[in-house]
Specification:
Elements (H helix, E strand, L loop, with lengths): L1 E8 L5 E8 L2 H10 L3 E7 L16 H16 L4 H11 L3 H15 L4 H6 L7 H13 L2 H58 L5 H15 L1 H20 L1 H13 L3 H22 L4 H10 L4 H15 L5 H7 L4 H13 L2 H57 L1
Antiparallel strand pairs: 1-2, 1-3
Helix pairs in contact: 2-3, 2-7, 3-4, 6-7, 7-8, 7-11, 7-16, 8-16, 9-10, 10-11, 11-12, 11-16, 12-13, 13-14, 14-15, 15-16
Length: about 400
């Protein structure tokens, strides 16, 4: 297949140009004539030197949001699909994304639908994106669907930020605590231990405990690092197995404090995604299949798969959701009301908005609770080490006095 650059005119006399892939020049001209374009010139595109780098820049959600919103604006303004893709490919700063957009444009020029062209890039455009675009093309409302997609992705980005903010502070405090304790045990305590040995006498129990921990850390530091690495590797491999992921995800939902946050995030993601799909014209069975794949929690995924199976057998959405005992009763009741009134998509969006606020509130509460708890924990641990090291000094001073 060669890439050809062409120029031509439509029946209205408008001048157009573009690129397309074809087996030969004659095939390219024939394809353009079928599109009612009078070809004035066709030439093979000059091949550029491609340097294969060991890595490629990743396409972030923010890049997809900007691309989708700009695409919707241009489609709404009446620009042809191929021209929109050409403009977006040229102005996209991410080279990996720009290359993918060019590939999509070439597939569309060759006669493929926009959704089918997107489907060839699953690492960038997931099933939800592709199915919504397909529904938009079929219904002739592609610009509306793209606007909905951009809003959905923006809300998903906000949700991810909330999750990161909930985990960032405690992770930082724990990491700092571990580093400080290791530094004290490996480098600081041995100096005190040598000094106490020179003094002689029986050391207090806390001091002996800290010095013993320091000796163990110094003589087994490599073994400890290797053991921690093996544990992390083993847990990671275990989580990648179906049973392991199910066990860990079930445990995450049952945790005393974080479990509530995980459940609220799952509900917000489920309702937002399914509501967006249904409002875009995607059948509910296809929508549930997509939502299950993007659930992010094995327990929620299995619950949605079971729900989809029940709906295919003729049941409503609310009934099997209630039987899974994964979703809160309020959510199930509101979905039942939405089904009864025929406004399921609107009801799902309301539930998603409510739980987005709940996630934000829960994150703020957790942060305010964890901050003093972690500071107290850090103070107790480091304080114990410091006091244990000064006890012999106080004892010596009392003896001299």
């Amino acid at each position: 297949m060669e890439t050809y650059v062409w120029t031509g005119r439509t029946r209205d006399g408008k001048r157009q140009k573009g690129e397309m892939t074809a087996k030969s020049k004659d095939e390219a001209i024939s394809t353009l004539r079928k599109q009612n374009i009078l070809v004035t010139s066709v030439s093979t595109r000059t091949k550029k030197l491609n340097i294969n780098l060991p890595f490629k820049a990743s396409v972030k959600d923010k890049d997809i949001v900007v691309f989708t919103r700009q695409f919707a604006t241009m489609i709404d303004a009446g620009l042809p699909l191929i021209q929109c893709l050409d403009i977006l490919a040229k102005q996209t700063e991410n080279k990996t994304f720009a290359s993918s957009i060019n590939d999509i444009r070439q597939d569309v020029e060759a006669g493929s639908t926009y959704a089918d062209a997107l489907r060839k890039h699953p690492k960038i455009f997931n099933d939800l994106y592709v199915n919504m675009v397909a529904a938009g093309e079929l219904g002739g409302i592609l610009d509306t669907i793209l606007n909905r997609l951009s809003k959905y992705i923006e809300k998903s980005i906000k949700l991810k930020r909330q999750i990161k903010s909930a985990m960032a502070y405690p992770s930082t405090i724990v990491a700092v605590a571990v580093v400080v304790i290791v530094v004290l045990l490996v480098w600081v305590i041995p100096i005190f231990a040598k000094m106490f040995t020179d003094f002689g006498g029986v050391l207090p129990a806390p001091t002996r405990m800290v010095i013993g921990a320091s000796d163990f850390m110094q003589h087994n530091i490599l073994i400890i690092i290797g053991a921690v690495g093996l544990i992390i590797f083993g847990l990671n491999r275990y989580y990648k197995t179906p049973s392991g992921r199910r066990t860990v995800d079930r445990l995450a939902l049952r945790l005393p404090i974080f479990g509530l946050l995980v459940r609220k995030i799952a509900v917000a993601k489920f309702t937002r995604t399914l509501g967006t799909l249904i409002s875009s014209g995607v059948p509910i069975l296809d929508g549930l299949d997509i939502v299950a794949k993007t659930a992010g929690n094995k327990v929620v995924e299995e619950a949605l798969v079971a729900t989809r199976q029940s709906i295919s057998e003729g049941k409503t959405l609310a009934e099997p959701l209630e039987q899974t005992q994964v979703f809160p009763p309020m959510v199930v009741q509101m979905i039942a009301v939405g089904e009864t009134t025929g406004a399921l998509d609107a009801m799902l969006s309301k539930i998603a908005d409510f739980y987005d606020e709940e996630v934000d509130s829960t994150v703020s509460t957790l942060t305010s609770l964890l901050e003093p708890m972690l500071m107290i924990f850090l103070g107790i641990v480091i304080g114990f080490i410091v006091v244990a090291m000064y006890l012999p000094i106080f004892k010596l001073a009392g003896t001299i006095g």
